[in-house]
Every structure is written in structure tokens, then in C-alpha cells.
Amino acid sequence: MSRDSEPLLFKFYICVVVRCVWGFCGILAYIMTIDEKKSNIVYVFIDASNLWEAQKAKGMMFDYEKLKQYLYDKFATSELHIFYYTAYPKNGTRAYSLEGKHKFFTYLKKGLGFVVRKKELKRIKVKTDAGDIIEEKGNMDVELAIDVVHFKNKYDTAIFFTGDADFLALVNYVRNGNKRAYVFSSKNNISNELRTGSDGYTDVLKIEDDIWGRTLEYNKNHPSREG
């Protein structure tokens, strides 16, 4: 080998080494990204009544398949579990059929893999000056709180779709356990305490990604008809 070829050979070796190091760094970065996703297990807790208010404000229904993908991407996770909490009317208390509502619950559960926690609305007779009236109550706060506590060792990040200030204590519980807690809600439906007390707040009405489905239609005589 001539002396003139030695510098060229040396440059060649340098190029090979640089390419190998560059490739190794790329592989390492990819592996670290996978590990990060694996370590960021996300549990989502959806208060359906809160989302219903956002949907009324938007005039459109959420597309829950799109919403699920949005959360996958935003939080860079390969493991996402979504819990959906709702109360539904008792059969015979509405002029419209409730079959569609129950089919929707089945779609969330079997089609999208959600865990659906549901119960029938309680009908309570209340005496007023105008006579007896029936009030319906279907609070799911306790069920949601139980799941957050029960699965605390399963997730790294908890996402709350709610605006109720009562959940601030639950958010603090999650954060005090070295977990991350994020809140999603909408303008005029979020308490200031909850909006500022988490690791991050997102107004669902300002999300630029396409998470919406069909135009909303609901019975004004029963405005709590979510889903």
C-alpha cells in the first residue's frame, strides 16, 4: 500500500466509525422511546356528565375512537386504559327509547375497550309549594374515586375528564404518590382550583386535533341526555 493511499484509507475508516456510532445512537434513542412509553402507563377517568356539557357547548358529539387515539399520541403511551362513568334513566321514564344509549355503552366497552361504570338514575320525590316533583340523581364521584385509588399502582399518569372542584383532593392524592395528574374539561365548566391544581389543564373545546363526530341532537326536556 502506497503512502499516498494511507490518508484516504484513514478517512474511510473514520467515515465507517462515524456512521456506526450514528446508527447506534439512533437505535438507542428508539429503544429509549419504547422504554419511555412502556413506563408511562396512562389511566383515563371520564365523568360523562362533564363531557356532556362540553359537547352541548360545541354542538357536536365526541368521537371516542378519535379521542382515544389523541390521548395515545399526546401522552406517548403504548398502554392506555379508559374508564367511563355515567348514570342513565330508568326504563319508562322517557318518551324516547333508551336502546340507543345502551348500545352506545356496549360500543364503548366491546368496540373501544373502555371500562364502563354505570348505574340507574335515582328518582326522588321532593315536596315543593307547587306540589310534589321528581328529581333525578346519578352522581358517580364515589365510583370514580374508588377506581383511582384501587389502580394507583397500575398507572404512571392519571387523566381526569371533569371540572368538579371536589376532585382536587383526588388529584392531590395522585400527585403525592409520585404520579402525574392532568385535567381535561371546558370553559365555564371547570373550577379554578382544579384547573390550576394539576400537572396540566386542557380545554377540550380548544383541542386542534379532530376529536369530534356527528352534530349533537338532544331532547331539551331532558338536557342531561349524554352519550
What labels would you give this structure?
six-stranded parallel sheet; Rossmann fold; single chain; 227 residues; globular; alpha/beta
Cα(first) to Cα(last) distance is 79 Å
| Strand residue percentage | 25-35%
Total domain count: 2
- Compute the average pLDDT: 82
Q: Can you characterise this structure?
A:
This protein has two domains: 39 residues; 176 residues, Rossmann fold (3-Layer(aba) Sandwich). With 227 residues, it is of the alpha/beta class. The chain is 41% helix and 25% strand. The strands form three sheets. The chain has a six-stranded parallel sheet, with helices on both faces. The chain has a two-stranded antiparallel sheet with strand order 2-10. About 5% of the residues have low confidence. It starts with a helix and ends in a 12-residue tail after the last strand. It has seven helices and ten strands.
Helices and strands in order, then pairings?
Elements: H1 5-39, E1 42-47, H2 48-58, E2 60-62, H3 64-74, E3 80-88, H4 99-111, E4 115-120, E5 122-128, E6 131-137, H5 141-150, E7 157-161, H6 168-176, E8 180-185, H7 192-196, E9 200-203, E10 212-215
Parallel strand pairs: 1-3, 1-7, 3-4, 7-8, 8-9
Antiparallel strand pairs: 2-10, 5-6
Task: Provide a short characterization of the protein structure.
The protein has seven helices and ten strands. Helices cover 41% and strands 25% of the residues.
